[in-house]
Amino acid sequence: QVQLVESGGGSVQAGGFLRLSCAASGITFSRNCMGWFRQAPGKEREGVATLNTRVGSAYYADSVKGRFTISQDNANNTVYLQMNSLEPEDTGMYYCAADRLLYGGICFGRGRLTGSAYAYWGQGTQVTVSP
């Protein structure tokens, strides 16, 4: 049974930082495309970052590029999202997602920032950034 458990959300002021964690079980961690998504009230879900855990390569949405960093810890089957220089527009529920990645598979681009590209999802962790 696949489980993705997010943690690390909270409330911070603009300019602050948070680190989100996504602990994965039930998957072969090093053979997945992992993604972080967010959804603000009344808005559509937005993909913010992807990580190819086979090779460790990352891809970011333009809205977070230069501020967010996605990384992996293979020993603990965990993906992190380091979020710096947070803005009120970053407020939302943040979700971790996973999809099995075959050798040579794609884990970047607009397609991978789309929720339908992922088979497994966590329950989410709330991030609130105040002005």
Give a written overview of the molecule.
With 131 residues, the chain is mainly β. The protein has strands at 3-7, 10-13, 18-25, 32-39, 46-52, 57-60, 68-73, 78-83, 92-100, 120-121, 125-130. It contains no helices and eleven strands. Strands 2, 4, 5, 6, 9, 10 and 11 form a seven-stranded mixed sheet that branches.
Instruction: Pick out the low-confidence regions.
Output: none
End-to-end CA span: 40 Å
**Overall spatial form:** globular
Structural class: mainly beta
Our Rg estimate from Cα atoms comes to: 14 Å
Largest sheet: 7 strands, mixed
Tell me the fraction of residues in β-strands, as a range. Answer: over 45%
Number of helices: 0
How many strands appear in the DSSP assignment?
Answer: 11
Q: How are helices and strands ordered from N to C? A: EEEEEEEEEEE
Kindly report the average pLDDT value: 96
Percent helix among the residues? under 10%
Describe the protein's topology.
Blueprint: E1 3-7, E2 10-13, E3 18-25, E4 32-39, E5 46-52, E6 57-60, E7 68-73, E8 78-83, E9 92-100, E10 120-121, E11 125-130
Parallel strand pairs: 2-11
Antiparallel strand pairs: 1-3, 3-8, 4-5, 4-9, 5-6, 7-8, 9-10, 9-11
